[in-house]
Amino acid sequence: MAKTAIAYKEKMKEISVFSLICSCLYPETRKNLMGDFEDLDIKPINKRASGQSFEVILKPTSPVSDAAHCITTPPKREVSLEDIQKKLEAAEDRRKSQEAQVLRALAEKRDHERDVLMKAMEENSNFSRMAEEKLQVKMVQIEENRQAYLAAIMDRLQEKERHAQEVRRNKELKEVSVKA
């Protein structure tokens, strides 16, 4: 399969786009062009009303042509000690830069957490202070109401006591006047 793909790529390199377009427009040229390639077969398909279509078929490669399609790797460039040192220094700089960036991000996160914690503590303190002030006001109000209630009860008791004394005095006067 790989050899077929390589052969197809090689043939497609040989056929320029211009010649492919020309072969679509001028069928007689296409017939002449197709005679040049033994392992590539192009069949026209006349199923479209809008234009022409073609089917490209690759023929299996022969063992003789394998040597011709062998691709050699480009020669490797010699790497000097200076190049290696430069690459290592660049990698070290990138590592240090990335490490510094991570440390900055962590410091910013820590600062943000500290700010949030301080704000929460301040809000908690404010809430506690406000709750204590409200409680103090409420306790003062309760004490004032209690004192007023007790004073009202004492007034009523004193009034009842005066009334009871008056009733006793009137009763005594009545009994003294009845006896006399």
Short description:
The chain is mainly alpha-helical and 180 residues long. It has four helices and two strands; from the N terminus they run H-H-H-E-E-H.
For the largest beta sheet, what order do the strands appear in spatially?
Answer: 1-2
Count of alpha and pi helical runs: 4
H-E order: HHHEEH
Low-confidence stretches: 29-36
Description:
The protein is elongated. The chain has 180 residues and is mainly alpha-helical. Strands 1-2 form a two-stranded antiparallel ribbon. The longest helix is centred in the last third of the chain and has 99 residues, at 81-179. Helix content is 72%, strand content 7%. The chain contains 4 helices and 2 strands. Residues 29-36 have low confidence and may be disordered. The protein has helices at residues 2-14, 17-25, 27-34, 81-179, and strands spanning 40-45, 53-58. Strand 1 and strand 2 form a beta hairpin.
Defining key terms:
elongated, mainly alpha, 2 strands, 180 residues, 72% helix, single chain, two-stranded antiparallel ribbon
Set down the secondary structure blueprint.
Elements: H1 2-14, H2 17-25, H3 27-34, E1 40-45, E2 53-58, H4 81-179
GO molecular function, one term: tubulin binding
Keywords: Coiled coil
Family: Belongs to the stathmin family.
